[in-house]
Amino acid sequence: MDNQKPRDKKKISPERKGLYYTGMAMMGIGIILFMSVFFIAFTGDPFAYEGNFMQNGFYGFILIGAGTFVMNLGARGAAGSGLVLDPEKAREDLTPYTKAAGGMLKDALEEIDLPSVKSGEKEVVRVRCIHCRALNEEDARFCKNCGKEM
Known about the structure:
Blueprint: H1 14-43, H2 55-80, H3 87-111, E1 126-128, E2 135-137
Antiparallel strand pairs: 1-2
Helix pairs in contact: 1-2, 2-3
């Protein structure tokens, strides 16, 4: 256990996780209510339905919007979602996501085979001799292989 990395202190709190999952549940119920309008319309006579059958769609639409807001609030925190205008608190709330984005970027860059340019190293450019096709330094006046002028 001593060789494990210390856990990041900027974890998402259980309250924010609860808000996120509550918002997700609200969206799910909203989608079911919204889709019930189409189900009623296609499976039977919508006018035989007690009351206005479109009200379920309206309530579902409202629940989808409210669930999205609550989910966003849980995911990003009050300051990170823009509900509270405090830049320092927003940075703190968004830390898990910015670290995750940096980790994803690092993983993507590791997959790409980029030539590494180390500081202080000069890139070497070679010039091919037109007579013997040997490679020479870029500032060479004569070919090191055949001795002819470059």
